[in-house]
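cache lookup: miss for this entity combination. No prior model stored, computing from scratch. Input as submitted by user K.M.:
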Amino acid sequence: MDWPIRYADIAPWYDYVETFVGISGQAEGLAQLPDGKFLKPMALNCVEQSVREAVGRAWPGERMVTIGRCAVLTEPHNGRAACHYCGPCHRGCITRSYFSSVNATLPAAQATGRLTLRPYSVVHSITYDKRRGRATGVRVIDGQTKHALEFQARIVFLCASTIESARILLNSGNGFANSSGQVGKNLMDHIMGGGASGRMDGPADRDTIGNRPNGIYVPRFRNIGKGKSSFLRGYGFQGGGGRSDWGRGVGETGFGADFKKSLRRPGPWGFSLYGFGEMLPKEENFVEIDKNKVDAWGIPVARISCAYGENEKALVHDMSISAAEMLAEAGAHEIQPYTSDNPPGLVIHEMGTARMGKDPKTSVLNAHNQCHDVPNLFVTDGACMASTACQNPSITYMALTARAAAYAVDAMKRHEL
Amino acid sequence: MNRREVLLLLAGTAALPDQLFAIGRAVHKRVRAGTLRALDPHQNETVATIAELIIPKTDTPGAREAGVPAFIDVMLADWGDEEQRRTFTAGLANVDERSRGLFGKDFIACSPIQQTQILTDLDAELARLRDTKADMSKNFFQGMKWLTLTGYYTSEIGATSELHYRVVRGLADSLRRHRALV
């Protein structure tokens, strides 16, 4: 089933959100990975640079290695400081370099003076006026008192994340927003785990400085332009190069004073590639409600049925081959290709349970993320995606959200909503 | 381990994944608080002796001084499952069987040269397993090495005096640049 929009519809909104967020990256002029509004790119280290050169020489115009495009600042931006490469990003970024709701969007929302944030609010369902055909707000279970509350709204944006948005819609009452029968269906994730790693000849007297929160990226090259593979669609690689640390000692023979001394110095250089591939939509992958089980707040839980198919497995197999080829071209030694058997969900790019489409019979949302059945309800998180592609999806959700919000405001001004 | 940690591991980039360092630090905190739980005193002394042979005192402290034996006890008690504890203590018992067979004494009663010979044998057997790409996850010495190195290099002594680990590399430089903003 086709998307109801094209890149041209959303391109100005990628620019809009990227300008707010601050994305660092290197413009490369690729159709399958369009350039955005970039701050200075982070630097490739010497081994990564040599791999980029080797891959560019061996596969000109087909495969390439670039620095990752990441939402971490390399220049001061909107009052947030540039990254100083300290490392433990997930413990919180004191310089607000790393884009997050805490660092960027919530302060901006708060500064408008129009934000009300209510924590401990577990959303149960969307409330609905059947006669008017409009959502009227949300039913919430207070996370601490377990009392039920209702909040009224003229417009509802449902962005609870793919599984949860589907669950809330399904828990909202018989067939709510679901004349298509598509709510919960075509659950997808990316597939990951194919790739290769190897040792590289790198300068013995140099090491990386700082902990760069970013790696390299190899944009998709399969089923692009000429050349057809035995599988559909494709994948990209993340990865990077660096020197091993004391951890390598576990895999080495030896113990004692000399062994300890050898672990003081950085180990050999290495490089690795780790693939992320597209998952095809299938109706037999879905979210439904388990009517016999409720969570701690009395809300019926979601039950997930999802498995990768033959095309996804073929992608992973090909990842291990093409990655090993690139490492060989770059002069790597002891190349180890790998494939893995990860379950769907582990890539944490779940999508698809309330897809956008032209036809209300086969989709939940229209081209503006507006529910076909409920015009004042918008879904702009991963649930809205009609297909997954292979790129990290969050910036797309953000662009669609900004676009849908602008559309909703316009519709309100025209008294349509 | 989540995707980002897998990527850091596979990219072979700089230091150990943040998560492993964080776990190491958390375990060391618990070590300061308690007494032996997974190991009895004889097992603990055997562990301490092996650990000190793997990472001995040199111009910097060794495994004992860095608190590795207590770290290993907490790891086994709180992080290991029943099967992992069994494999480990069976491995310790096997070390004593070898020393009694070779030298007529428990491992901790042997001389350093005798102890080194036993560990050399264990290390060589592990190397053969590694070469044949066999499953090493249940090998005692593999587990002992991992626990010793992790316990040592995430300890304050190991990280600071041996590695000169800087949590924020180039910090002085960055602070100078960001003084206006931070």
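stored under new cache key. Chain A has a mean pLDDT of 96.
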